[in-house]
Amino acid sequence: LFWREISPSTRFLSSHLPPPSCLAPSLLRTSCPLSMDNDESRDGQTVDLLRTDFLEEYKAPPLKHRVLNYLKRQYQLSSLIPSTVWLPKYISGGWREDLMGDIFAGLTVGFFLVPQGMSYALVANLPPIYGLYTGSFPLIIYGLLGTSRQLAVGPVAIVSLLVSHGLNAIAPAKLEDGTANPVFIKLAIASAFLSGCFQLALGLLKLGFLTSFLSHPVVSGFTSAAAIIIGLGQLKHVLGYSLSESNNTFVVIVDMLARLGEAHYPSILMGVGVMAFLMVFKKVPRLRKVPSAMLVVIIGILISWGARLDKSGFKICGTIPAGVPVPKAPELPSSGMGTLFSFVLISSMLGYMESIAVGLTYANKNGYAINPDQELVAFGVSNIVGSFFRCYPAAGGFGRSAVNANAGSRTQMAGIISGLLMLIVLSALTPLFYYLPKPVLGAIVIIAVSGLLDTHEPFHLYELEAWEELIAFCVTFFATLLFGAELGLAVGFGCSIIALLFQTSSPTYSVLGQVPGTHLYHDLKVMDAVVPVPGILIIRFDMDLWFANCNGFRDAVLHEVKLALHMVSETDKPRGELRRLVLDLSGVNRLDSSSMRTLKDIIVKVKSISPSTSVALAGVKKAVRRRLAREIALASYMGPGAHSILVAGKSRDQLQQYFSKSADASGRITRQQAISIAHELEKFSSSKVDEHTLEEGGSEALSFNEFYQLLKQLYGEKEDRIAMLYSNVHAAVEDRESLPPVNAEGPQEEQDQEEIVMSVVPEAGEINAEIVTKQQKHA
User: What confidence score (pLDDT) does residue 14 get?
Assistant: First the structure.
């Protein structure tokens, strides 16, 4: 088959085979029968596949083609537009099982979304109609691009609060006469467009992991404070008078209590009644599927219309524009872009975090997977398209998604049906909301956000003694109450980063001892049965080594070395015996350049403190060994035979570069040039070059192989191996099973090493150890 493929032309071979130099000559030049077809006979012919004339025709694919191929693999149509996968199946027959559930869920969510959208628009200091806009087009777009089947997209309380607080710094939400400020509305629409662009860019670049830098305690603290802020903000509709616009929640509370005499008591009575009605529907399991919010809206409209409550001091919604909005490009402001971008950054990340948390919950519950990066793309496109239809930023909500799931949603079609229902409401039903009392909308929001108040989290963190996270929760909670939503979340984000840096920069290590009678080594401070190994100090580092923690690791190792040598101060002479220092790196998955410099520094300083102490690296993982193989000063100390790969601390590739700088057209250098290069390499080695060895014997002009062999002669056997690599701690203690050298060009096949499986019986204090091979474990 091989001969049949390559015989028509050498062009095929040049397009499909690598250069022959990477294949064994014994396999490429052979005498064998080549008759693969009945009508051909080429027995006894010798085929020389080492000829290189066809390589002239070989050219690497252009960069443009390689980039396009990569993009095709990463961004397939089925992943960018998931509806191209599920919608054909739905149309071809899946609708028989899913359609009824999707219709019922879509209509139920739509009935919830009408009053909720109008209420959340008031939270954002926008006219109620903008809540209906935000609950229509983003729902339809997300249904086509999203991967969650139960997530209900639209206006949410947290993002609405951020819109109110974040954009109010650029332009006031209300004019002096109390009407909506057109500039503020344009800013809200522009923020939807910019949020969509930001989310779309994160999704296409696969950067969804960035949102993980907001820890759960920080988010919980923020949402709890936000629930209080939103609830207080809606009390103005229940009380019947406006409250202070201060970002300080305590100032708002004082102002509210000071002006209780201005309250409109019929509005308070209506708001309290609506809240009690909604709580009953929320607490009774049989009534949870009933769209209670829509029910109280209908009742409130009928009472307000019949009793003419607008003439009795009640505040009503008034005229709401009818019709689907005409597409119009959002207008970006000419000033305040810095503040707007900071708001977009925070609201986009927080909205996405809330949405992905809900989506993952229902995906796990229903046995399917969602793509976080594709979710970012879906939200980005939804907000971009929504901004052309006067929407403010949308996200996935907790309450609506729960209603959607409980109502029987099976696919994303339920969200599309909800969006279409909202368009019908916009087209014909908005005049019906003229008499809707605002105390009803305020009460709906207060009940909706009450579920965001997380009273369990701080007590849970206290029980776990997670003090850093408890502090982050409290700091975020009170910062949000004191300084507002935007600054409070920024403070919480800073707490997350500081806690992360604190945890990763504080070195975590253990001094190990041996379990008598076994090959097991454990922390001396944890297990009483463990005893130190005489003359050997074993230190295990339990986290990745990087620039932030490598100095702490070095100081910790040197401190333990001095303790083992009974050195009280820096100037003391070692009074103890330390034959070997074993650094167990089994918990280290990666090294950066700073940590590798730290390893060299540890080796040098340990040798300076105690010249008789040898250093061993144990349990080094393959990825770390490959990195060590490329390091100038560590690679030549990687165990027996390492000098055949690395000479004088330089890898063969690096030596080739030194050689090429001095080589002539024939690829050779003179002996004098070889002496100069050898002297240049002296600074990487403790050995001194003997010029007499370079000058004696051999040809005057040296090829690279001759020069390399000569340097091996000079350095390879003379160089002291400061740090040896061992497969595990026991091998390092017993000075056996040194690892073979690691080729810097790529990974090697790992042998099936013996692994120790241990079980501890706490009551008896006994340890059972069993040695098994990888094959046995897999079996």
Answer: 42
Average pLDDT over residues 555-562: 91
Distance of alpha carbon 318 from alpha carbon 443, whole angstroms: 18
Please give the structure tokens belonging to residue 356. 């992905």
Percent with pLDDT over 90 in the chain = 15
* CA proximity to 119, closest of 194, 230, 251, 205: 230
| pLDDT value for 22 | 42
546, two tokens: 């990087």
CA atoms of 152 and 355, how far apart (whole Å): 9
Q: Are the CB atoms for 282 and 295 separated by under 8 Å?
A: no
Mean pLDDT of 183-206: 92
Give the burial class of 345: count Cβ atoms within 10 A of its Cβ; 0-12 exposed, 13-18 middle, 19 or more buried.
middle
With 0.85 as the threshold, say if the pTM is over it. Answer: no
**What integer pLDDT is reported at residue 571 of this predicted model?**
63
Q: Which long-range contacts (CB under 8 A, 24 or more apart) does 427-434 make?
A: 427/322, 427/323, 427/324, 428/322, 430/129, 430/132, 430/320, 430/321, 430/322, 431/320, 431/322, 432/301, 433/118, 433/128, 433/297, 433/301, 433/317, 433/320, 434/316, 434/317, 434/318, 434/319, 434/320
Describe the crossing of helices 704-711 and 671-681 by its angle, rounded to 10 degrees: 50
- Inter-axis angle of helices 249-258 and 467-483, nearest 10: 50
Tell me the pLDDT band of 623, cut-offs 50, 70 and 90.
Answer: confident
Spatial CB neighbours of 701, under 8 Å, sequence gap ≥ 6: 666, 668, 669, 670
- Cβ of 660: how many Cβ atoms within 10 Å? 11
Residue with the larger pLDDT of the pair 487 and 643: 487
Q: Measured between alpha carbons, how far is residue 432 from residues 138, 277, 304, 305 in Å?
A: 24, 22, 12, 10
List Cβ neighbours of 148 (8 Å cut-off, separation of 6 or more).
358, 359, 362, 363, 370, 375, 396, 412
pLDDT score recorded for residue 694: 56
Answer for the pair 652, 646: CB distance below 8 angstroms, yes or no. Answer: yes
- Picking from 538, 701, 725, 756, the residue whose alpha carbon sits closest to that of residue 631 is 725
Looking at the DSSP bridge assignments, the partners of residue 521 are: 514
Two tokens, residue 658: 């030194």
Residue 713: pLDDT band with limits 50, 70, 90: low
At residue 338's C-alpha, the angle toward residues 170 and 156, to 5°, is 65
In the numeric block, the tokens 């403070």 are attached to: 491
Label residue 597 exposed, middle or buried (CB < 10 Å: 0-12, 13-18, 19+).
Answer: middle
Give me the count of residues in the chain.
779
Residues 344-400: tens digit of each pLDDT: 988 888 888 878 878 887 887 788 888 888 999 999 999 999 999 999 999 988 778
Is it the case that residue 197 has pLDDT exceeding 90?
A: yes
* Tokens of residue 264, six digits: 């409109």
Which residue in 153, 149, 180, 148 sits closest to 167, CA to CA? 180
Contact in structure between 439 and 115 (CB atoms under 8 Å)? no
- In 284-336, alpha helices (H): 292-307
The fraction of the chain above a pLDDT of 70, given in percent, is 75
